[in-house]
Amino acid sequence: MQRRSFLQQSLAASAAITAAGSFLPSSIQATEGGKSSPRFRFCTFTKSLQHLSYDDLAKRTAALGFDGLEVPIRPGGHIEPEKVEDELPKMVEALKKHGLEMTVMTSGINEVSKEQRTEAVLRTAAGLGIERFRMLYYKYDLKKPIFPQVDEFRPKLRDLVAASREIGIKPIYQNHSGKDYFGATVWDLAEVMQEFDAKDVGIAFDIGHATTEGSKCWPLHWAVCRDHLDTVYIKEPHWTEVGKAPKVGPLGEGGVDPGFYQTLLKSGFAGPISLHVEYVDHKDPSQEPVFLAAVAKDFAKLKDYLEL
Hints:
It is a single chain. By secondary structure, this protein is α/β, with parallel strands linked by helices. The protein has a single domain, classed as Divalent-metal-dependent TIM barrel enzymes (TIM Barrel). The protein is 38% helix and 15% strand. The protein has ten helices and ten strands. It has helices at residues 3-14, 54-62, 84-97, 118-127, 146-167, 187-193, 207-214, 218-225, 259-267, 288-305, and strands spanning 41-45, 68-72, 101-106, 132-134, 170-174, 202-206, 229-234, 236-238, 247-249, 272-275. α2 (54-62) packs parallel to α3 and α3 (84-97) packs parallel to α4 (118-127).
């Protein structure tokens, strides 16, 4: 299905919004007791819903059947780091009211520093029962030798892991595609992680980014990350133009090998799975119904892959 066709169908679905205030057609709302199996904790990334109040955010996503959310608590995110002490408790309370947890806090933190308000943000989150936070990426300078830069990242990560362990929250690092991302090749990230205990720091394995960078070698990327695997990220790259980087599109219609899901099932992994729907304009609040319909569609496809 092409992007335009999908969006047209999503818009048609969103037209079924009822006068009672539901933002989803009843055919794609979660049924009572329809949350995930005990094995997995499903969440979804809420970058496209930052315009909503905390209560509306929780209400809209709880209707889809998720166990929790991955929320951006970072510069430009749903809550700015300077406001965490006042605002994060309010958000967590709103999520709890609707039966949700903050499964992953997406942060702007990759070191212990005053500039990133590392201690204040992490202590507040840990005190509210948030178990893990996604780190900000490290970036390579391609004009300099690469291997010495890996050794520059190590002490920053050591300090952050030690501080997080003392505070009681776990950092996780996502493999992200791109020409200058530490972790894009996966091997660099996996090698650095060998220094640490998996209970103290983990990898958020993103099959979409692993497919973009590795194509057929995603099983190798999965294997080298397995010892430190904490969370699995789901998205699907679509190659639509020759010579151009892929764009994210609907699940099951792009480049991810369906065999990944069988590998995931057979692996024994039983942690959080975060669904990332990134093909609806996250900067346009008017696209909210389209986004929610897309999340519902992809979530149904994901559960089908996982035989739920």
